[in-house]
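Exercise (ungraded).
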Amino acid sequence: MILVVGATGQLGGLIAHRLLERGEPVRILTRAGSSFDALAAPGAQTVTGDLKDRGSLEEACSGVGAVITTANSAARGGEDNVETVDRGGNRNLVEAAARAGVRRFVFTSALGADPDSPVPFLRAKGETEALVRGSGMAWTVLSPNVFMDVWVPAVVGGPALAGQPVTLVGSASRRHSFVAVPDVVAYAVTAVERPEAEGQTLVIGGAAPVSWREVVAEFEVQLDRELPVRTVEAGAPVPGLPEMMSQLLAAQDTYDSPIDMTGLAAAYGVPPTPLSDFVRGFLAANPRPAP
Ligand SMILES: NC(=O)c1ccc[n+]([C@@H]2O[C@H](COP(=O)([O-])OP(=O)(O)OC[C@H]3O[C@@H](n4cnc5c(N)ncnc54)[C@H](OP(=O)(O)O)[C@@H]3O)[C@@H](O)[C@H]2O)c1
């Protein structure tokens, strides 16, 4: 039995679906108000619980061979925050899994996670990575770069289709190896069954590093028109984006994060999704306004 924690979210939901398609027995942790019908229907066992509730996690981990967790507080709020979910909640889960005798534990972290990071979210991820590595379970840490599926529509695709100017922060010329969520799904479901993934941190990026200006250029090629672009200083709000994303865009303008995926992609049989394919899929899935 594989317990997926975070299966009501984007990445965790796709991981649970893929495991079910492969015929794996899957249990998902759900909370009151979570949306999980689409997963429960094809056969996922559901268990009610919350990362903030240690007791619920012991029950969730009972009889489980592997845990994959993607849960995080970034898109939540209120009582679900970095301290209660990404730090305390993850600690609760790692400890409950180890106590329940879970053998495999796959933790979704993020590139840049570091127990000494000045960014609380990345600090919590780094602390959890350390806990997972010292838990006694056979662990794998997934360390993906920024998700195309979250960021590219928010920064460029959405405004472009809405006929609004794209807002870039700073120079927007730093290059990042954006990764498509389905690629991360493929690494997660492969890692959980491969002995060679045990004790490994998988740093996951896309096909090639690209800058925000290059993302705009890709949309211009595929839309066959120029996009109006405005630039704001680092720290200024970006219209339509939550403050956290504006801040992260400013941070992205201070470093490059290329990731050479040649070796990992070949070893795991996961060809990295190029930005052009992602943009093509995004435009096909979203109606274009009349010119
Ligand atoms: N976005 C990026 O660019 C990026 C980059 C690198 C790494 N990552 C990592 O990749 C993962 C992203 O997963 P995702 O896109 O699937 O996230 P998501 O869509 O925001 O889903 C969040 C999940 O966490 C669960 N959760 C939140 N608080 C919880 C709690 N107290 N107890 C139990 N579950 C709780 C949610 O459950 P409910 O539905 O019940 O709230 C939901 O299933 C995260 O770990 C993130 O840090 C993201």
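Further reading is listed at the end of the chapter. For now, observe: The chain has two domains: 2-144, 148-176+207-258+272-285. The radius of gyration is 19 Å.
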